[in-house]
Amino acid sequence: MLNTLRVLEEVAARQPIGVGELARALEMPKSTVQRALLTLDEAGWIRPGSGEVTRWVLTTKALAVGSRAGGDLGLRGAALPIMEDLRRHTGETIHLTVPEDGRMVLIERLETDKPVRTSMALGHSLPFHASANGKAVLANSSAEVLRALLVDELPRYTETTITDPDALRAELAAIRAHGFAVNRGEWRNDVGAVAAVVMGGHEKPIASISVNIPIGRLTPESEILFGEAVREAASSLGARLG
Fold first, then answer.
1. Long-range pairs for 178-181 at CB < 8 Å and ≥24 separation?
2. pTM of the prediction?
3. Would you list the domain boundaries of the chain?
4. Domain 2-67, what fold?
């Protein structure tokens, strides 16, 4: 069941898409992906797209269920055109995350066309202190939120994870000054990201937008370019949300 749901999420994110591409993206055997596709097809969630090679797309059933969901759909709908512009501008994978239960949760993504890319399923969560998305939100959070988090040594995920509360406070101050956060392999060694916070009513952080890349493509120059781009995108989304 879990594999079938993962396949459905991937089709939704990258449709139209074939079984081989799905297997590579999800790092699953093609036979497993094929079984999941047939199950979803039989249940009416997906259908073959046009063309000689079978590539799968969502059906109106999936779209109808999605349209009845609450919560983040207004945010996602407003964000998608901005995320698409950001993907065209940077050529990289774009993530939209929201704070939930002490972590950042991925609610939308747009993939790069580059063969070497980062991969994360919708619904995946990230630690605040070890992700660009989380640090962008923390840098704009209330003193009460920071006091609750920055009490003890923070969990370490890689050699570059910031675990010392005082060091993280200094990092958050720099993020506020620059307007964007950078993750230099702090959650996963091979993944880098640059993110900016989306502010909602009463100057409260409600989301973050990020450019996500293999760590080898994260350079001092690209950090600045991506930082300016995500800062502008996040500001535009905040203005659109009112």
1. 178/227, 179/227, 179/231, 180/132, 180/136, 180/226, 180/227, 180/228, 180/230, 180/231, 181/132, 181/133, 181/135, 181/136, 181/139
2. 0.71
3. 2-67, 70-241
4. Arc Repressor Mutant, subunit A (1.10.10)
